[in-house]
Amino acid sequence: MQLTADEEKSLNGDQGETVSSAYRILLAIGEATDAEKLVPIKWVHISGVNYNTIGDSGVQFLEKFSSNAKVAVKTTINPMGFDRNKTNRLSENFVKKQMSIVKSFEAIGTIPSFTCIPYEIFDIPEKGSMVSFAESNAAVFSNSMLGLLTNKESSLSALASSVTGKAPLSDLRIEEFRRPKVVIKPNFKLETELDYGLLGYFAGKVVRDSCVAFESVAVKPGDIKMKSVSAAIGTSGSCGMFTLGEKAEEVISYGKEECNIIKDELNTSEDGDLITLGSPQLGMNELNLLDKLLEGKKFTKRCLIYCARAIHKQATQIGLIDRIERAGGEFICDSCTCLTPLVTRDEVDSVITNSIKGAYYLNRSNRLGVSLKDLMTIVKEYTNQK
Q1: Around Cβ 173, how many Cβ atoms within 10 Å?
Q2: Is the pTM of this model over 0.70?
Q3: Domains in the chain, start-ordered, CATH in brackets?
């Protein structure tokens, strides 16, 4: 891989050991992915912010890394493990380690966004802009619906890009790899966000290329169904992009049988002790829909709603939060359903959710049963008239 003279100097330590190590990371990734060079990027989104994700070794690494580095481009960060205003149910050790992570990211100059849906909060660069997104749903959604160019980065590669402002020119940053070789054709009508999530999870499992096409799937770019597809694809495989309506060499049929196999893998309980919504975090579209569905009703089970603090603030200003809370919803900011320490087997055996990604992690990491239902069904089955 060819480096510029300035990049060579930074690699050799002219900007300090931390930046040098970041260039070594990018160089290794670039060589592994046959990149010809590094390219400037406009935005980085970093994962690995939750203490449950990176553990003690990650805490120590970030403390050292942040002591001598600053971000070179706009850098936003993923959810952490709890709501900064609601720490009373967590261990002192977890809070201490989580806040160390937060301080490290603050020290290098990241924006304390604590969100997995940065594309719903921040201004989007022009179509075709190079970015570096580590959060899988954000990478898939941005490639597919916004026309941004990013690979599915790791937390480490995104961190390296944040302090260098560079990323390898490879894979989904190249037009050739953004053309699908496989098209998946549903042979039944998809209706709910859960239907689309199951399709996405199937696609991630069966497609090994960077991009997949969906036939007979046509919804608006801002639709929550596309968010569900993006999160599910990012959960089950390495595919980092989808297109709608394009032709491809190979056609894979997706029918009720395939759908049921996927659902049986993730749907491990008939019911649940509480409801969790928000993986990815809920945005204004989902909150508006939830508010409409809850009109005149109240949850009969505890319902945790994860959303970004910026979204919570916006929704508060127009009365959404107050109305949903009166219906029994409990909001948790800065965090999300995935790898949450707020839902454990100490208190519940199973959880109700409409999130494919949430179901995956609640099953595998939290060791909880999961009852998968779409949002409309959840409100219908778990509310009473006020």
Answers
A1: 22
A2: yes
A3: 5-173 (3.30.499.10), 179-263 (no CATH), 267-385 (3.30.499.10)
